């Protein structure tokens, strides 16, 4: 009876509250404690009357913590303190339904700001004092816990409010009054517990004589300073700064090119950081080397080597096989691959560089792939830290050890980096400053890596006093290095490790986080910069907005700026530059990776689990790490669950699988990922080639910002993925997508989505209805948009796109898109990269040039399919790819007038003309030109002053071309010419002594490779015509 009375009273109260709510009053909750129990009940107040006296103890602020989080203690605390901001628009929109305002968030901010002041001093002392270090670690964990608690609560509240009318939402709201009130009390208790812990830890810091340092710069200020510096220093991403290698480079080139007719192995050995790889690269780039050898392969051999994988990579690089041939190679046995590699080296002059071999076992495992002591002009250039490895592979007279730089060379290298960005008035370094520099260089022991890192650090210091401070810090770091417990270090090693450690200590907190994040990558891993910057953003290392010179800079641009600063400091090495001069890939030097791993371990920043060394135990991950990188092995048959990760607090789970990882994942392994780690923000499961099912529980990972299944054979995308409303990057480019793969309409509510990569097979997946993207207003990248499976109306509305690729289509679909853009007067003013493909042969299956004209600021354009004419007004276009466009010869006149075109690829059947003319003054800024599969081309004319900036020219499989253009001899800027898979009669004309050699003899690098017999070319031409 009592229960019935209470239920009745509750119903009456709900009805009253609904009526009052309709009058403009707002619902808050009051929690009180009576008779040993907590009670939560609703209280009404006007919307405009939420002042301090109406704030109940356990009412909640309407905004949540942002995703900005740092792992260095100061970085973590800074971001949590400053980052109590909206998680996203969808929470802001629902904030009017949240109850009241709490003082607790403000109190948390104040406490964290106070602690941040102490952490500045603690960070300087924690290296030497274990008590301080432990305290700092506890503060970092507490700050993370604080964010996890608040974000989890708000995501839970927000999920209850999505969808429905206001009336429906309000009724649903009151239906769960008591349950939600209990949740609020529980969350409130957790917050209070964490705040008490933080307050206690702050008191501990004070008891350790840690003083408070005030006046530190904010996160926004730190990033603004970084952006200003990016514009101040001219050597933003300087590369190929080399000193003292001229003589030894020449010696090695002579050995490789002129040393007899038998197979030869030349070894470079020396300690880490001595410039072995730099020397090998210098040799590899020499024009004499490029002209002499037919085929090239450069492979890095890490400490975790696998002989078959190494030989596969060499074979692929020597032969450049088709996709089908690569599949055949992957199925071959190791001895078969070794024989193939050997055979190629016998037939052609090949140069294979084996970079960084660590052990004799590694050499022995792959040497069967080389024609040792046989009659051939193929060569191996090997680098290693171990002299015994070099001796095993080479004879004594073919061993070379890079010498340490002398004092003058040290200063020359140092000055090129440290002083390069200064004004002219700063170039005359006074005696005191030079003296300081030379004193610091003594600790570098003549090793190039240490010198460049030190110089990169000092390039950001302008005054003598700043240089003195750095000198003092170097000495401290070296003294710290001499106390390393693992083993005794030589004075040389202490000096180098001290300089490297100082480069890390000098980083601002946000760059420390970015640097430590690189610890996840395996040794010698080529890191894709676009993916790395997306991960940094997902982790919260980059602020959501950054204002520079009065305009808002995108997070992606700020993130790239962090990468370039690490490159400037010589802490990260550039792998590949893009045509625009931006860094496309990067890597860590082995010594810098060692430092990165050491610091990541010390800071509990990231744990690495290597399945190849055996089953994982709870002891594998020590401490409360928030990120895990898992190196998979073909024999892995066990899962990694939250028990290994200490109660599932892991934020990032990154799987690294070997190429074409074929191990089948059982359901237990999959469940352990999606059931046990509920706080995940980053999940990367790539290159799992055996099919697996994604469970529905993936929808419980509501904190996810980044999800990549690239290259993996998932069978369906569950509808529960629509719950992942915080996703910023979603990559679904599966490796083995089939018609049975189901991609459901799950994207419509992901308003935070910035980068979406759909499967890239046109017929390769099924959908129910059309995929919807209309609400994705933050979307910048949309890859593999299928007009068959997606709504064109949505595409027209995505006005913030920067990169768009549309899958092959037909039946006039692109014509319909053009009409929609014109009728609605829409332009893609932010679009920088566009790819369009058309299949079919009907009248409507032509790429309309008007679509391109609706993208006025295009920088990169790829067109695959028939066109009647090229668009004329593309003033910003820098890179253009044309394939199967079937254009007439007069369209060249349009191309050569594009004012900023730098890269041009004329591919398969792009032009249907026997004669192609580059007229006088045409292509004023073209730097890279490729002519590929132009089957009709017979004559190519280049008039005077055409292509005055051309640097690289590639001619591939243009079977009908009779001769090189005469005008090439006038292009003095041409540095590299590659003739690939051309008929022997053509290659004879352009080779030394040939009829056309005079046209290209001034070109430093001339590569003629894969020469085809003339009758083979005739057969290939017939095949092309049939196709």
Automatic annotation (TrEMBL):
Q: Which domain of life is it from?
A: Eukaryota
In this chain the Disease resistance protein winged helix domain maps to: 521-596
Q: Which CDD domains match?
A: RX-CC_like
InterPro entries the record matches: Apaf_helical (IPR042197), Disease_R_plants (IPR044974), LRR_dom_sf (IPR032675), LRR_R13L4/SHOC2-like (IPR055414), NB-ARC (IPR002182), P-loop_NTPase (IPR027417), RX-like_CC (IPR038005), Rx_N (IPR041118)
The signal peptide stretch is: none
Which parts of the sequence belong to the Disease resistance N-terminal domain? Answer: 84-162
A biological-process GO annotation? defense response to other organism
Record bears the keyword Heme: no
Annotated Disease resistance R13L4/SHOC-2-like LRR domain residues: 672-979
Please give the Gene Ontology molecular function terms for this protein.
ADP binding; hydrolase activity
Keywords on this record? Hydrolase, Nucleotide-binding, Plant defense, Repeat
Q: Which Gene3D superfamilies match?
A: 1.20.5.4130, Helical domain of apoptotic protease-activating factors, P-loop containing nucleotide triphosphate hydrolases, Ribonuclease Inhibitor, Winged helix-like DNA-binding domain superfamily/Winged helix DNA-binding domain
Residue ranges of every copy of the NB-ARC domain listed in the record: 249-419
Q: Under what name is this protein listed? A: Putative P-loop containing nucleoside triphosphate hydrolase, leucine-rich repeat domain, L
